[in-house]
Design a protein that fits this description.
The protein has helices at 51-56, 66-78, 87-92, 95-105, 134-137, 140-144, 191-200, 210-219, 228-231, 235-243, and strands at residues 20-28, 113-119, 125-131, 150-156, 171-175, 178-186, 250-255, 260-264, 273-279, 282-288, 300-304, 309-314, 317-320. It is of the alpha+beta class. The longest helix has 13 residues, at 66-78.
Length: 346
C-alpha cells in the first residue's frame, strides 16, 4: 500500500496531513476436552472461508497451509517482540503491546500525540494516552497493565480542533449499552454543520475535533424502524447513518465491547487495510492505516478495506456488512428521500 493518502474529489487542501490508525482483535483457539487449546483452524464449518471469499470480503479468512503456519510460529518464537506465542503469553503480554508496535511503524503519520484503548472479555476498557511519540508514551509497564483481547490505537497529526491532551485519540464514550472507542484518520469536511446539529440537540462537546463529532453521531440511536430497544445497538446501522451525512474524508477503527469495525469513506480517500497474525494459541486480526506496520509483528496482509465499506472484525473472521463496494458512488444525500429518518441527529 502506498505511504501517501489518495486525493479524491472534495478533499481539503490539507490532505497531506495524516494520522495513523491501528487496531487488533485476538481470538483464542477453542479449548479441547482436556483443556488444551485446539489448532488454529476454526472449530465450526462456517468460521473459515475460501481465498476467493477473503478477497471479496465475505466470510472468514482461510486457514494457512502447514508450511506457512510453521514458518510463522518459527518467526514468532525467535523474535521476543512478536505478539502471542501462547494463550498464557496472551494474558501476560496484552494486545496493547501489539498495537503499540504497530503504532511505532506508523509514527511517520503523526508525532503530536498517541493513545491506545483496550477492551477485555468483560467489556471493561483501559486507556493510555499522552503527548509525544509512541516510545515515550507507551512504556512496557503501562502496556502490561492494560488487559484485553481487543484494542484500538492512534497517532495524531492535528488537522481539526486543538492540539492538546483533550484531543488525543482514541476517543472513549459511555452510552446506555456500555462503552465505545474510536480512532479516526482523516478530516470530515462538513464538521461545522454536523457539530451545530449535535449542539442543537442539547448534546455537549468536550473538544472541537471532528473525531468527537463522529463519536457523538455513533452514540445516537439508529434510524427508525429499529429494534435496538430489544436487541441492543445496531452499530452497522448507526455507522451507515453517519456515513450518509459525511461523504469524506475518514478511515475509522471503531471498538465496542464485543466487536471491532473498520470503516472507509465512500470515496476511499484515506487508506485502511486488514492483516492477520496466526499463533499457536489462536490468531489476531489487525487493521492498519498502512500495511508497512504488519512486518514488525509478522502479520500477513489480507486485503484493503474497500471504499464505502463497513467491515466487522469478529472471532475467526472479517465480514463486510453489506455489498456497497462501489469505488465512486453517488453522494449518499443525492436523493433527499434516501436520508435516514428518526435518528437523534436527523
Amino acid at each position: 500500500m502506498a505511504d501517501v493518502d489518495a486525493v479524491g474529489e472534495g478533499e481539503l487542501s490539507s490532505c497531506q496531513h495524516k494520522c495513523g490508525v491501528f487496531a487488533a482483535f485476538y481470538s483464542a483457539a477453542p479449548a479441547t476436552a482436556d483443556g488444551a487449546a485446539a489448532s488454529t483452524a476454526p472449530a465450526t464449518s462456517d468460521a473459515g472461508a475460501s481465498a476467493a471469499d477473503v478477497k471479496s470480503g465475505c466470510g472468514g479468512l482461510p486457514d494457512s497451509d502447514a508450511a506457512s503456519a510453521e514458518a510463522t510460529r518459527s518467526r514468532t518464537s525467535s523474535n521476543p517482540k512478536v505478539f502471542l506465542d501462547s494463550e498464557a503469553e496472551a494474558l501476560r503480554f496484552p494486545v496493547a503491546g501489539l498495537v503499540a508496535m504497530g503504532l511505532q511503524q506508523l509514527q511517520h503519520r503523526g508525532q503530536e500525540s498517541c493513545g491506545i484503548v483496550t477492551c477485555d472479555r468483560e467489556g471493561q476498557f483501559s486507556s493510555l494516552k499522552g503527548m509525544g511519540l509512541v516510545a515515550s508514551v507507551c512504556k512496557e509497564r503501562e502496556l502490561q497493565n492494560m488487559s484485553g483481547h481487543m484494542a484500538v490505537g492512534h497517532v495524531r497529526y492535528s488537522t481539526a480542533g486543538g492540539n492538546g491532551l483533550l484531543e488525543c485519540q482514541p476517543f472513549v464514550a459511555h452510552h446506555q449499552h456500555g462503552q465505545i472507542a474510536l480512532a479516526h484518520n482523516g478530516e470530515v469536511v462538513n464538521t461545522q454543520s454536523l457539530m451545530e446539529m449535535i449542539l442543537n440537540h442539547g448534546v455537549g462537546m468536550t473538544s472541537k475535533s471532528d473525531s468527537e463529532v463522529i463519536m457523538q453521531m455513533l452514540c445516537a440511536p439508529a434510524p427508525q424502524p429499529s429494534s435496538e430497544h430489544m436487541h441492543g445497538p445496531n452499530w452497522q446501522c448507526r455507522i451507515r447513518a453517519f456515513m450518509s451525512k459525511a461523504l469524506t474524508s475518514y478511515a475509522l477503527a471503531f471498538m465496542t465491547s464485543d466487536e471491532l469495525y473498520a470503516v472507509r469513506d465512500p470515496y476511499g480517500n484515506r487508506p485502511l487495510c486488514i492483516g492477520r497474525v496466526p499463533t499457536p494459541a489462536g490468531q489476531c486480526f489487525v487493521v492498519s492505516s498502512e500495511s508497512c506496520a504488519f512486518s514488525a509483528i509478522n502479520a500477513e496482509f489480507v486485503r484493503e478495506v474497500g471504499s464505502n465499506t463497513v467491515v466487522a472484525v469478529q472471532p475467526w473472521r472479517v465480514v463486510d456488512t453489506d455489498s456497497s463496494r462501489s469505488r465512486f458512488p453517488d453522494p449518499p444525500w443525492r436523493n433527499c428521500e434516501d436520508r435516514p429518518r428518526g435518528s437523534a441527529f436527523s
